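PROTOCOL LOG
Step 1. Enter all chains and additional molecules of the complex.
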Amino acid sequence: MNIWLVMLLGGLITFGMRFSLIYLFGRLHIPETMRKALHYVPPAVLSAIIFPELFLHDQELHIALDNFRLLAGLVAVLVAWFSKNTLLTIIAGMLALFLLQILG
Amino acid sequence: MNEQTKNFWAGVRAELPLLIGVFPFGMIYGALALNAGLSKPASQLMSSIVFGGSSQFVTTQMVHESAPGFVIVLTIAVVNLRHMLYSASLAPYLASLSTRWKMLLAYLLTDEAYAPSIVRYEQEGVTPYGHWFLFGAGLALWTNWQISTALGIFLGTAIPESWSLDFALPLTFIAMVVPVLKNRPAIAAALSAGVVALVAYTLPFRLGLILAAIVGIVVGTLLERTGDSHL
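Step 2. Run joint prediction.
Step 3. Record the structure below.
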């Protein structure tokens, strides 16, 4: 298959999935349980993205004091919890990682 | 400033920290695509035709391995399956829009546009011009992705890995998820999804992410049902 055709089909399918439920909502009856379940999409998806970035190193679980990304991530969690400030959280996390890399 | 503009720029602002993390990925993608044997126009246009980071990396890899076209298309579909979750999650907040708006916002819907937007919508509920926030966030990311792809194609990966700029991405997601953890079901959803994501990480096509998300959603919903919703 031609690469342009591959990209076009891949793009159309991707768009279709992104559009699907935005389009169908209101046209379909959505049960109450499903509506409630949707509120758990953000915590579930975001954590599923975050955890591997912090805990895995070369696809291996790495829980130790020399896992700087994990430590810096924990600093960010604490700062986020107490400050509720996005920018502060990112700065604290990046700074923690830089310092750990320099000192470690 | 009117409400549209205000919401638009709030979306752009919320997207800024994510752009720092995404930029190096765009450059790496551009450089890899060229390396894998894609032409310059194809490498660049994939960033607007498919507009999905993980799926573009996988496509590049598969083109390099000369995989059959239909296998690549199928892989793109599976890798991007998680967008259906985002679509469902945002749908209630976009219900009153015209089909044209819905199409535009669906095209711009990525992990990085979804995250700040859903956090905002859950705080503010449905507002008349709220969709401009998602539009601002999505357009900022789209522009950033096109530029970083182009730079990757023409300059290669010019940002040193030791700068760890990619770490800005999980950090931003942390800043977004922590305020969402307001009760036990939400915390349980986050922890269970995180643990499953670790265990299932080696599954192909980012299926581990989808599995983890589904487990988290089910755990949160079940806990809420049993009424155990207070800290």
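Step 4. Note key features.
The two ends of chain B are 41 Å apart (CA to CA).
DSSP finds eleven helices and no strands in chain B.
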